[in-house]
Write a structure and sequence with these properties.
Layout lengths: L3 H5 L20 H18 L5 H9 L10 H12 L2 E5 L5 H9 L2 E5 L16 H8 L6 H19 L3 H13 L2 E4 L2 E4 L2 H4 L2 H9 L4 E4 L2 H5 L11 E5 L2 H6 L5 H10 L31
Parallel strand pairs: 1-2, 3-6, 5-6
Antiparallel strand pairs: 3-4
Helix pairs in contact: 5-7, 7-8
The protein binds 7,8-dihydrobiopterin and fe (iii) ion.
The site of 7,8-dihydrobiopterin has 9 residues, from helix 5 and helix 8.
Length: 289
Amino acid sequence: MPALETYRVQWPEIRADFTVDQKWDSYLPAEHDRWRGLFERQRKLLDGRACKEFVDGLRQLEIDPGQIPDFSRLSDALSRLTRWSVVPVPGLVPDDVFFDHLANRRFPAGCFIRRADQLDYIEEPDVFHDVFGHVPMLAHPVFADYLEAYGKGGRRALALNKLPNLARLYWYTVEFGLIQNAEGLRIYGSGIVSSATESIYALESTSPNRLHFDLERVMRTKYRIDDFQETYFVVTSFDELFETTYQDFAGLYERLSRGPAYEPGTVLPTDRIHNKGDRHYVAGSHAAV
Ligand code: HBI
Ligand code: FE
């Protein structure tokens, strides 16, 4: 996690909350071209795979397929819908800074775009992962409230030294969550929706587990950041997700400190299996952030 001073070399104006100026006019045509290529590839793939709420958000915010969005204009549209704004950051920011932004309905989005040799896989959240992957869901009122509640929970988790448990919840919902609704099994997780290969793998491959969402099960389940997920958790609505934030987290953290943590590929007898997919997938393809 780079510190403020590390970023200050390239971003002299960086502020204490790690926000910088997007400098939209300084993007090169080749950078807008990479945005357009990524956007077009995902739009084709996500038809019938991304959930309706994601597709609606992309449309309502009029996110431009042809060039990297200007965060101030995007924030104007987003704040009218759910009072969220998108603030430019140079990359990963410290957990406490990240949670404070979310708790104040500010989404910290990377304002750099991946290089041409990183189109299929990038470690850091760039503008495509953050703005294409995360921002459309923030136009959905219930999801928008969930992410604010997550930010407030994150600040508490830090104080209780329980961040790893809460980071798992973020990972298996906001980043890699699936939803089963009237349309069928669909993607809402940003890490999937911004990845060409994982968009197919997550829904159709026979190799990962797909389990019904259960808060304590998720918070006990470890995750890997360098490959496809071995387990996806499926919710049936965003209300279901939001209702989990009404927990007594102190009691939950107490229970979590006693019981086991599970490896990513574990399946328990008590798990409610959702499905096993119907497509043998060639292993070895990379997931994107
Ligand atoms: N910083 N910019 C940025 N984006 C993230 O998604 C992010 C972060 N810092 C920490 C973090 N995510 C995770 O550790 C969360 O689980 C807290
Ligand atoms: Fe992300």
